[in-house]
Design goal:
Number of domains: 2
Shape: globular
Distance between the termini: 39 Å
Number of strands: 15
Structural class: alpha/beta
Oligomer: single chain
Number of helices: 12
Strand content: 15-25%
Strand order of the largest sheet: 4-10-9-8-7-5-6
Largest sheet: 7 strands, mixed
Radius of gyration: 21 Å
Helix content: 25-40%
CATH architecture of the largest domain: 3-Layer(aba) Sandwich
Order of helices and strands: EEEHHHEHEHEHEHEEEHHHEEHEEEH
Length: 400
């Protein structure tokens, strides 16, 4: 791997993954691993899905890419399918290449339409790898107001936020053009802000003429046990950014806009063109993914299997003092551990899981294991994972 630039910041653990099938990856020796992160949270239907692969092959035989002045009916059909899942049947959709691009596109929509100088997001949001959205996590980003909701988790006002709350009063709503909301990933920490807080922020922004832009790149398409994370908050977004699961591993994203947004955007003189915009091949993949997810009842399955998965992990936490917290929604789940200090580190747990054939998410700075498996994961694999983790913790790793 001397000729490949590796700048992701992640340790390279396996260099010989050669095949994927369903929820499994295989190395060159034929060893099978349960992929508990669905690639980079992308293969929501599992690796090498036959219907998605067939859609790719069929469209490759027709046309993969055409220029800006031309299109075909497939692009419209894919837009209708995506908009239907978001609840914006009369809206507008554009297909792009990555989740970061989709979120940044949504941010630019809000800036162009409202003309306001500020954007609001939660302190722990991760929105994009570049652009204005990519600067949202930086304290020095002048265009972003980042709301620290750490004190809100223990707030006694559980039904509705206190309008005189000192934290809300610090937000300059009159200068904010959009609330850009990531409903649950929190930079991979799997944290879910209180419903009443999110509703209060969204309501105040909208009353001031701002937009609600929701980043569903990670939380969308069944990941949280609903089609989209914003459904858990009773919201009606103006703009929704999709990615990851929309392509099941193929690089396609989308921006869904409520009725009227596209007209307002275009009347401002907005133009945006990139080489892989509304590609027929990407649209064929997106349409097939949505169809498979809907026909297979995978959103409801994510809620059901995720609830049982969470229950089993909570039982694990009750048996091991090293487990600090278990949290999740649908098949977006995290186990946070107490600091190891002089005990074997969480890295030992992660390595042992790999040896046993489980590829989990691992965030060492947060002492966290994370599980975002394909929505098709077998319940037997969930049980085997929990049993293996129980055995590892019983063996002394991270035990007090």
């Amino acid at each position: 791997m001397n000729h490949v630039l590796r700048c992701s910041g992640y340790e390279l653990v396996k260099t010989d993954i050669v095949r994927g099938s369903g929820c499994y990856l295989y190395d060159a020796q034929g060893k099978r691993y349960v992929d508990l992160e669905a690639g980079v949270w992308c293969t929501a239907l599992g690796h090498n899905h036959p219907r998605v692969n067939q859609a790719i092959r069929a469209q490759l035989e027709r046309v993969a890419h055409i220029a800006y002045r031309y299109t075909n009916d497939l692009v419209e059909a894919a837009a209708v399918a995506v908009l239907g899942t978001v609840g914006l049947a009369d809206g507008t959709c554009v297909f792009l290449s990555s989740g970061s691009e989709a979120v940044e596109f949504g941010v630019q929509i809000a800036k162009r339409i409202t003309g306001q100088p500020l954007l609001l997001t939660l302190e722990d949001s991760y929105l994009a790898a570049y652009g204005s959205a990519g600067r949202a996590g930086r304290k020095e980003a002048a265009e972003w107001h980042r709301f620290d909701w750490s004190a809100c988790a223990a707030c006694p006002h559980t039904e509705a936020c206190d309008p005189e709350c000192k934290h809300l009063r610090r937000v300059p709503f009159e200068r904010i053009g959009a609330f850009v909301f990531e409903p649950g990933s929190s930079s991979g920490l799997v944290r879910f802000p209180p419903r009443q807080l999110v509703q209060a922020l969204a309501g105040r922004v909208e009353r001031q003429g701002g937009l609600l832009v929701v980043d569903e790149v990670t939380t969308g398409l069944g990941r949280t046990g609903a089609w989209y994370g914003f459904e858990h908050y009773g919201l009606r977004p103006d703009v929704v950014a999709l990615g990851k699961g929309l392509g099941n591993g193929y690089p396609v994203s989308a921006v869904a806009m409520a009725p009227g947004i596209a007209e307002r955007l275009l009347s401002s003189g907005f133009h945006y063109a990139q080489s892989h915009q509304n590609d027929p091949l990407a649209c064929a993949v997106a349409r097939e993914v949505v169809a498979v997810m809907a026909e297979g009842g995978l959103v409801a399955r994510s809620a059901r299997v995720g609830t049982d998965f969470l229950r089993q992990l909570e039982g694990l936490g009750a048996r091991h003092a090293s487990v600090k917290d278990v949290r999740g929604r649908g098949l977006m789940i995290a186990v946070e551990f107490e600091p190891a200090e002089e005990r074997p580190s969480l890295a030992s747990v992660y390595r042992e899981l790999v040896d046993r054939g489980f590829l989990a998410g691992y965030k060492p700075a947060a002492n966290l294991l994370r599980f975002y498996p394909p929505l098709t994961i077998a319940e037997a694999d969930v049980a085997r994972l929990v049993e293996s983790l129980d055995e590892i913790l019983k063996g002394g790793t991270l035990c007090p």
